[in-house]
Structure formats: structure tokens, C-alpha cells
Amino acid sequence: MAAEVAAEASRESRVSREEPGRVRRFFALDLLDNRFPALHGLRFLAIITVVQYHVTWVFAGEQGLAIDGEFLGPSLSIFFGMDLFFLLSGFLIGSILLRSIETQGTQQLRRFYLRRMFRTFPSYYVVLAVLSVLMARLHMLTPDQRHNLWYEATYLTNFRPLGRTDVVMFWGWSLGLEEQFYLTVPLLFVVLQRLRSDRARVTLLLLLWASALVVRLVLFYRGRPWNDFALYGALYFRTYTRFDTLLAGILLALVHQRWRKPLTAWLEHPLHRALVALPSLACLWLLLRPWMFGWARVQLVHVFAWGTVTTLMWFGFLVLLLHGEGALGRFLSWPWFRRLATLGYGVYLVHIPLLDWVIVPLAHRLDARRVSMWITWPASLVTLMALSLAVAYLMHVFIEKPSLRVRDWLAA
To answer: What is the pTM of this model?
Structure first.
């Protein structure tokens, strides 16, 4: 009897010790892969650039809140954080694809698809469903939005008009573009696998990358004259005009995997690093000053900028980041960036509704009290990021993590 009591007490003690561990594991983040730690910091900075762009666009373009012109232009010029997301996504799938080529198998690719589906699909569909139901109950769901819901549900948002009254989640265009591109990856995988040399693979990827610019140029010259918004709608969101950013990521993965050691050694010389950095800086200068060749040529500059110039800029910067050590790389590798980047997808999904329903009313109240926009804008950005991270964390714990457990069960 005494032995049974002792055993029961031991079991209860063990359970009581294990319980806090279970709770911590339940609320812990399922962190992103950490093979390239500096990319987490870069990804989070890209998230901030996208959110700040939307804050400025909504405040000045939709709500009529007065923003100083000296701030408005530079804020809207920093649009290229989204292209960094595309390039990093291509780099991820490219790394997996190249490992699959080496192993002559598809297990890595299959695991990538499972992981992406179960990490991204559930949260997307939950947000889309919640917003649709709320808007319907508030009598805000327009006939066009109702009609286009099936496009959004099948990740075809970027092939619909993206006005506020056209679709529920107009910012879902980028998610649709990525998912459509990934559907072509198996075909690209087969072609690259059959090529006999890395030189042939690089040549093919470069030709495909350049073909997106050709498509944009053909559409631009055939459709003239354009107004700025029509050109933006025709070229910026479509998969067939914007796939070069994702292909550049696959090319970067090939360069990194095949020539990492010699490239790292070559970049140890300051002159060589400058030869890579200067073209990237020149591209950045052009992106920030698209009128540098004259206002009459701004639209043509955009045709080059929306994919070609952005990928050239990010490609060179990422080559330096991945193949060298420095203060910037160490800063971007800060462990907390990995946690923040893990929540980045959720932040992107919810930041627009939070901006519309929470931040905009607060900004109008501050504007009515004559609070300077130099105070309102940064306070709005910080508050929006904090709220978005909080909601993204809840989505991660209660939606993404359970979905990933299902993924692991299926993968097994």
C-alpha cells in the first residue's frame, strides 16, 4: 500500500513538473528554418517597408489626411520590400529544388509543398472567411466582392481588379502570384534536372528572368498611351509580368549552392565587394528617383523598375550578405528577428483590416485635434505593427501550429 501511494505521488509530481513544459511548448513559436539567419532580419525589415507604404497610401490616397510632400514621395518610393519577399521565396524554393536535383528525388519538394500549404493556406482562408462574413453582416460586401470571392479562394486575386469594392483582400494579390508561380516549379525542376551543366542552368534562368521584362515592354508599347494607374494595374500585379523576382531567387540559390566557397573568398577583397555593391546602390538610386531621366520617361522607368531593377538591386545585396561577414549581417542575425519574421506572414494578412478599422479612426481623431502628422504617422505605424504582431501570434498558435502538426502526420 505504501509503495502504491509513493508511486502515485511520484507520478503526480512528474505530471506537475511536465505541465508547465507542455504549456510553454503550446504557446512557443514554431520558428522558421535558421540556415540563413541574416535573412530573418532582412525579411522583417521588408515587412516594415510594406506596412509603412500602406499606411501612407491609405492616409494620403484614401483618407485625405495631409502628409508633407517631402515625406509622402520617399515613403511611396519604398515599394520594393515586396520584391524582396518574392526573391527570398524564390531563394527558398530554389534551395530545395537544387537539393532535390542532387538526390534525384522529390521528397524535399513534396515536403516544401506540404509545409507551405499547411503554414499559409489555413490562416489565409480564416482571414478571408472572417472578413467576408463581417462585411456581409455590416452590409459592406459589394456585389463585385461577392462575385470575386471564388477568385480569392483559388489564389487568383491578382487577375481581378484590385479596388476596394472589387475584392475583399486586395493585398492578397502577392500571395496569389507566389502560389501560381509555385505551380510551375515541378516543370522547371524537370527541365533543370535534365540539363547537363550548371552553366546551362544559369543560362536558362537568366533567359527566363529577362523574358518578364520583354513581356512588360511589349504590353507597354502596345497599350500606349497609359495613365499611371492603368499602367500600374496592367503590369505590377500579374504573374506573367512579375515572375522575374521569383526566378532571380532561384538563380541566387544556384549561385549560392554551387559557388559559395570561391565567391566568399573572392568577396573578401574590398574592391570586389565594391564591384558588387555599386550596381546595387545605383539601382536603389534609380528606384528612389524614377524621374531622373525626365518626367516624360517615368512610365518607361517603371516598366524596368517593376522586377528588373529591383531584382538587380536585391540580388547584389543578398550576394554580399550571404557570402560575407560584417556588422550588418550580425545585426540582421539577431535571434529576435527570427521570431518576428516567423510572424511576418500573419502580419501581412491582418495589417490592412487593422489599419482600416483601428488606426484610421485614431488618426482622424488626432488630426481633428491638430496633432502633427509627423507625430501621428510614426505613432500609427508603431501601433499597427504591435497590433498586427499580436494578432499574428494568436493565429500562429491556434491556426498555424495545429495545421503544421497535421502536415507532419501526413509527411510521415
So the answer is: 0.92
